[in-house]
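Translate structure to sequence.
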């Protein structure tokens, strides 16, 4: 389990606010890529189609969402322990 960096949290917020309009998909020559966004460099790959770049970015966002959920569960568990509540995993 890992925690999100400030830039990863910022990117998730932008996606939540603007949806796919916030995707950092760019055309480079005749290929497509995504990133860099702040300190997030993106993949070291280029894609033949825009759809390929979008799928790659959406997979990355899914990983961030999962890490964000893990962070929230750990935070809630720590609060439960501090309050003396039941500490069974949810």
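Result:
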């Amino acid at each position: 389990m890992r925690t999100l960096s400030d830039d990863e949290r910022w990117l998730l917020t932008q996606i939540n606010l603007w949806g796919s309009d916030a995707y950092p998909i760019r055309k480079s020559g005749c290929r497509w890529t995504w990133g860099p966004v702040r300190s997030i460099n993106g993949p070291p790959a280029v894609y033949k189609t825009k759809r390929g770049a979008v799928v790659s970015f959406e997979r990355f966002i899914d990983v961030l969402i999962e890490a964000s959920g893990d962070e929230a569960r750990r935070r809630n568990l720590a609060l439960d322990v501090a309050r003396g509540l039941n500490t069974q995993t949810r």
